[in-house]
Amino acid sequence: MPGTVIAIDGPAASGKSSVSKGVAEALGYTFVSSGHFYRTLAWGILRDALPLPLQATEVDAWVPTLSLELKDSRIFLDGQDATGHLSAPEVATMVSQAAAIPSIRNLVNSNLRTLANSLDLVMEGRDIGSVVFPDTPYKFYLDASPEERARRRAREGLVDSVSERDRLDSSRATAPLIIPQGADVIDTTHLTLNEVIEVVLSHLQDVTPSRS
Ligand code: C5P
């Protein structure tokens, strides 16, 4: 039987990762950052020196040559561990361009859906409730003011063009960032991490914690 999927979407630095990890821990579910898959492919584009600006036709030919794998919370591209590269500034700059290309999205989506065949998941991203798992009844959209999101990124010590990524992610033609139909919207601007986790869990009282 396929697993249960809890979808948590929202813009950059809205608290999705920390909240998703906390909810996954509370329920015994597996946490998955779909952004890590997109960042891994952005890293691969730099590794393989694909011509810039990216052309869909070149990327379409490159994608079928790749093998992408999540193992013990680490992510591998063609057997190389990409995990340590995912927060690099050059990856953050490349990722939204890469994520706008449909062949990249198809590759990531098929990997994400495969995970749900055997695991209960808390998955965070931009299109998890709208495109990847539109049928899950458990959808959340986290948001926070732009100022608060920029502060959170700075506190993590990350150099990141949050507003530029949001602009690209919200305006792209394929799977733009939207509030998924039926999602509970939570403004996290004035909430602590634990408060947000509690709000999410309060909407998940009919979810069965994982037995594993
Ligand atoms: O969540 P994170 O900040 O790691 O995501 C990095 C980028 O990956 C996003 O800015 C977006 O361009 C892309 N992404 C996406 N769809 C998702 C998750 C991430 O397009 N479901």
How would you characterize this protein structure?
The protein has a 5-stranded parallel beta sheet with strand order 2-6-1-7-8. It has a 3-stranded antiparallel beta sheet with strand order 3-4-5, with helices on one face. It has one domain: 3-Layer(aba) Sandwich (Rossmann fold), CATH 3.40.50.300. The chain has 212 residues and is an alpha/beta fold. Helix 1 (16-27) crosses helix 9 and helix 2 (34-47) crosses helix 4. The chain has helices at 16-27, 34-47, 56-62, 89-99, 102-115, 128-132, 146-155, 162-171, 193-202, and strands at residues 5-9, 30-33, 68-71, 74-77, 80-81, 121-125, 138-143, 184-187. The site of cytidine-5'-monophosphate has 15 residues, from helix 2, helix 4 and helix 8.
The name of the CATH architecture is 3-Layer(aba) Sandwich
Oligomer designation: single chain
- For the largest beta sheet, what order do the strands appear in spatially? 2-6-1-7-8
| Ligands and ions found | cytidine-5'-monophosphate
Low-pLDDT stretches are none
User: Describe the biggest sheet?
Assistant: 5 strands, parallel
Task: Let me know the CATH homologous superfamily.
Answer: P-loop containing nucleotide triphosphate hydrolases
